[in-house]
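Researcher: Structure for this, please.
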Amino acid sequence: MSTTETTRIHPAPPRSRLASPAGALRRCVLAAGAVSLAVVLAGCAGKTAPEKARLDARERFAGNSAEFAAQQARQDFQVGNLKNALTNIEGAISLVPTDPAHHVMRGRVLVELNRLEAALQSFEAALRLDSECGDAHYYSGLVYQRWSDSANAYTRYSAALATDETNPDYFLAALETLIAMRRLDEAEHLIEISRQHFENNASVKRAQGHLAMLREEPAVAAEHFHRALLLMPEDKGIMELLVISLMKSGDHAKAEYYLDQLFKDPEFAARPDLRHLKALCLTAGNRLVEARSIYLKLIDEDPSDPQLWFELGSVSFQLGDMRRVQNVVSRTIAVWPNRFESFMLRGMVHERENRLDAAIADYERACALRPAHEEPYILLGMALKAAGREGEAFDAFRTARMVAPHSARAQALLLAGVATEGAELNR
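Model: Predicted structure, token format:
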């Protein structure tokens, strides 16, 4: 969501009250207030034309003074001088309390000061003056969001959007809140009815990508992120999201291309998580030596991540680097004795050495540690098949299909008739 961000800086050293711009402004505000009070005490009835002219002039003076104070408050707010901003905007309100924009500005300053209750009161004051004040609804939503009250935040964002359906800040705030609440159908409906206003908005395309990822549609998400990137080609955050969606959709070649674009920025090139993705892309492309090199560097930097060890073991196994595989197995079983991957990897080593009984024992241990994962059952079934234990092999493949109904590999093994009891497929 796009909101005005402020840069906090240290205020300048205090000057004397006589020399201070804020002091001068306060004197101006007090003088105008005194003038306004005198006018009120004098009463309004029976005024002559000159008296009415003087009253009008004084009102204009108060209005101009209030606008000057509000302008100074906005400038202070932008540079992070929040205390001065609050003093100035409260001066403006004392002169012209009926301008909702002044109350909104006061609320925004209070939000930055983390005085959320008082901020909400200011936004409510603005809405009492003008129920169609979109900014008051919008910033109220930000307060509720700070309080993790997404339902009330969405109500306020929606009210803001109703005042101006073309405002991208209002729209994105409402959309992203719906997505955060997992109200995905409503989010899609909001996108559809607002499409004419935001068809070429990069932030909206990014939000659509998030929505598709939540629906477990990574290929669709990649399309949205790609369009967002075309609209904002310098946005590295969008490019990173595109990489992740491409990885999840299995398009490793394109993912690697965009990773390489990210790596042109030293900040991204140094990130371990992105280098890990690069290793996965290289593995998928059968560039195993390059992948192994990255894994070794990542593990050297942080040996506490078991996933890196298991993937290094898998790559090393494919390369025939059995000494490294043995080192990985020894390390992972010692440090993470309840991870199924270690026993699966050791079983593969035993099977390569034609020690089928030892391999079957390791695969069975892996199945027991991770009964909801199909891969240990597939490996177990293949080892049992190689050992001539056809019935048990069929049971293992059937279990693999049960825990992962959409596993093409488990399905293919069954349909190929690898077990003597294959007729049970028609039960």
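Researcher: Any notable elements?
Model: The radius of gyration is 33 Å. The CA atoms of residues 314 and 320 lie 10 Å apart.
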